[in-house]
Specification:
The protein has 432 residues and is of the alpha+beta class. Helix content is 49%, strand content 13%. The chain contains 24 helices and seven strands. The protein has a seven-stranded antiparallel sheet with strand order 3-2-1-7-6-5-4. A hairpin with an 8-residue loop joins strand 2 and strand 3. Helix 8 packs parallel to helix 10 and helix 17 packs parallel to helix 19.
Length: 432
């Protein structure tokens, strides 16, 4: 039942309660034409909407499972039909309904197979609860699966384990598919976990083709969870990255290193990087787009470490463009990092330039920024009557807490228009 869609909830989380759960006496069936000859699309529903343990399974099944239903019945127009859905040796569904234009619907009643429990006992398996037997019937799990598990030398499952396999889609087809790929485990729990994580025949085949065989159930689940499949492995191999262990590929995949990322670095001129280098630059956000942007701004390095450092400090093409627009070009990498670290960007530089401060020595702007001198502060002092102050004077006034409000209060006490030094002395003396 590879394509079955099972909507289950609380009883999966609490299997201990299965013995107490009432078995539905029936439900609804719907049949539509299948995509392949001899197949139909079968939908089975049971339970009430207000409960969380209802079921909606949909699967392509062979017409042979619909015992007593003929092609003439399915092609009829409103004629009542009676047939059985035989999906498992655990039980059957007695169905009644009608067809119109190849599509049918109706209701079913559930009939457990009384001989099923006896057959399980012959195989050394305890009797299932009524609910567990119903679960196996609905999922198409029966004696054929039990015998296949024995043939592949799995530990003998309990009835509860069989029901759990049924609910998780581990059916006869799945067990045979996994076995055909050379994977035989001792316990059914491994099969359930693999099925839950999407480990199927196709996935295993893709790993086999890439040279990774005879993996443990844990390894299969791990690489599946991390998105390492045959396609990814082959693409990485084509770019020169092949490993004897899967862990290296898992680590690269986790860090977002994929063929597209490697190609972007190759196009930017950085080739034959180690797996460690690839994960490092990826973690720091250095990709082909960033490298190209920096190169367009005149910053190209033989080593990636310089780009990693610039990226870590927030130096990107947009930041450099803002500095260029403010008139500062051809800065060194060290200058860029220092300006970025101190919050001196293009906007700050443009504002200071508009205020008349565009020093050739960038260190003066860094110090002014560090001391909290910005355009708004300069404007406030000018409005208080202090024009043409040097950056050093502005820093000194800022450091001593001189504000426009304080200056206005000083003037209000009859000091007229004191010099900046006088204002600073009054501020230091605690005048307010």
């Amino acid at each position: 039942m590879r394509s079955a869609v099972l909507l289950l909830a609380s009883f999966l989380a609490a299997p201990i309660l299965s013995a107490q759960r009432a078995v539905p006496s029936g439900g609804q069936w719907l049949i539509e034409p299948g995509e392949r000859s001899g197949m139909v699309r079968l939908t089975i529903r049971y339970g009430e909407r207000r409960y969380s343990d209802n079921w909606n399974s949909q699967d392509d099944v062979p017409v042979s499972q619909l015992v007593g239903l003929s092609a003439a019945d399915m092609g009829g127009s409103g004629v009542t039909v009676h047939f059985k859905i035989v999906r498992s040796s655990a039980g059957t569904l007695d169905c009644e309904g009608w067809f119109e234009g190849g599509k049918g619907s109706g209701h079913f009643t559930y009939q457990p197979n009384p001989g099923f429990v006896a057959e399980l006992a012959k195989r050394g398996i305890n009797a299932p609860t009524d609910w567990e037997q119903f679960q196996m019937t609905m999922a198409g799990v029966g004696l054929e699966l039990v015998d296949e598990l024995a043939r592949q030398k799995y530990d003998r499952p309990t009835a509860t384990e069989l029901a759990r396999m049924a609910m998780h889609g581990v059916d006869l087809e799945y067990v045979r598919d996994i076995g055909a790929r050379g994977y035989h485990f001792t316990d059914s729990k491994s099969l359930v976990r693999m099925r839950d994580h999407g480990v199927d025949r196709e996935f295993i085949a893709s790993l086999d083709s890439a040279g990774y065989k005879n993996l443990s159930a844990e390894d299969l689940v791990r690489v599946r969870d991390h998105g390492v499949d045959g396609e990814y492995i082959a693409a990485m191999k084509a770019r020169g990255y092949q490993f004897s262990d899967l862990e290296s590929l898992v680590r690269m995949r986790d860090h977002g290193v994929d063929p597209e990322f490697i190609e972007s670095l190759n196009s930017a001129g950085y080739k034959d990087l180690s797996a460690l280098d690839l994960t490092r630059v990826r973690d720091h956000g250095v990709d082909g787009e960033y490298i190209s942007g920096m190169k367009a701004r005149g910053y190209q390095f033989r080593d990636l470490e310089s780009l990693v450092r610039l990226r870590d400090h927030g130096v990107d093409p947009e930041f450099i463009a803002s500095l260029n627009s403010a008139g500062y070009k051809n800065l060194t990498a060290e200058d860029l990092v220092r300006l970025r670290d101190h919050g001196v960007d293009g906007d700050y530089m443009a504002d200071m330039k508009e205020m008349g401060y565009a020093p050739a020595n960038l260190e003066e702007l860094v110090e002014a920024r560090d001391h909290g001198v910005d355009a708004s502060y300069i404007v406030s002092l000018r409005e208080a009557g202090y024009q043409n102050l040097s950056l050093q004077e502005l820093r000194r006034a800022r450091d001593h807490g001189v504000t426009r409000g304080f200056i206005e209060r000083v003037k209000g006490r009859g000091y007229g228009q004191p010099s900046l030094d006088e204002v600073i002395r009054l501020r230091d003396r605690g005048l307010d």
